[in-house]
Design goal:
The radius of gyration is 21 Å and the shape is globular. A hairpin with a 2-residue loop joins strand 15 and strand 16 (269-270). The two termini are 25 Å apart. The chain folds into two domains: 3-63 and 160-340, 3-Layer(aba) Sandwich (QueA-like), CATH 3.40.1780; 67-145, Thrombin, subunit H (Beta Barrel), CATH 2.40.10. The longest helix is centred in the last third of the chain and has 13 residues, at 314-326. The chain has helices at 138-145, 186-194, 233-244, 254-262, 303-312, 314-326; strands at residues 27-31, 38-42, 55-59, 61-63, 67-72, 78-88, 91-97, 107-110, 115-122, 128-134, 171-174, 198-204, 227-231, 249-252, 265-266, 269-270, 273-277, 292-296, 337-340. Helix 5 crosses helix 6. The chain is built from six helices and 19 strands. By secondary structure, the protein is α+β, with helices and mostly antiparallel strands.
Length: 341
Amino acid sequence: MKKSDFYYDLPEELIAQTPVEPRNHSRLMKIDRESGEITHARFYNLCDYLKKGDLLVLNDSRVLPARLYGEKKGTGSFIEFLLLEQKGDKVWEIICRPGKKAKVGTEFSFGNGKLSAVVTEVKDDGNRIVKFECEGNFYAVLDEIGQMPLPPYITKKLEDKERYQTVYSKEIGSAAAPTAGLHFTKEMLEEIKAMGVDIAYVTLHVGLGTFRPVKEDDILKHKMHSEHYHLSDETAEKINRTKAAGGRVIAVGTTSCRTLESMPLENGLVKAGDGYTDIFIYPGYKFKLLDGLVTNFHLPESTLIMLVSAFLGYEKTMNAYKVAVEEKYRFFSFGDAMVIL
């Protein structure tokens, strides 16, 4: 298939700039996976489509406030860091701007001296390896002075950093939020559990590669970014138990989906594990575990809309997006959601 097959025309005013309050009052498009029939609802209506014996799988990764604004020591000139991946104790791979200021050995200061950094390596792709120093806990300092690395299509300032975190986020490490989970409230999760729907957690740390555009028109030539995942013994047991009882495994978000579909099966059973996945799911892919998917509306020609098309079917997916535009749904990270069952 061609990248252009996944294009749709999106008016700019439908790109959500701010989250809906309360979280679960965003709109929800329910799509029948077999027929493609569409029902319009609100996210709090999700409970109407779940049933006892289902298993919801959520990604509990927490977003780092990974954007830092500071200055070059000795000159006071501006620098911006974006943390990508931890390489050691207070050692990170970063993107910096402007890059010409960040040569090996150059020192920088952030938050009026609360955090300092020195460049130890310049990589072939232009990224830097830096060593940070601070008093006290690094993550506490980062939480105090760092900014959320919002996607480039969100231009409004986020007043409350927690609105770019899920209410169940726990494992620090993502450069972007697993946005399908932003719609849940703690009360709604309790309501779901009270119905007899089980909840399990995986961790996949979302990298900035999630925003990387597909450049090749032949999608088979696209190389997926790699992201770290972890699936616990408890979650593996819940998945296997649900499948054995005939229940549905429903992924909340494409990150949970990619984690589940990356897990090897032994005699039809999932085993716990962790590692890196670069799985690329596009139409024609045969799903091993997934029975349902909760997801937001994704960018045209992105790997995420390709994943949804693999699960729902190409024609039904593109029709759903056409309807969403016509009905003025809100798109992308702070936008509305769909559930496919």
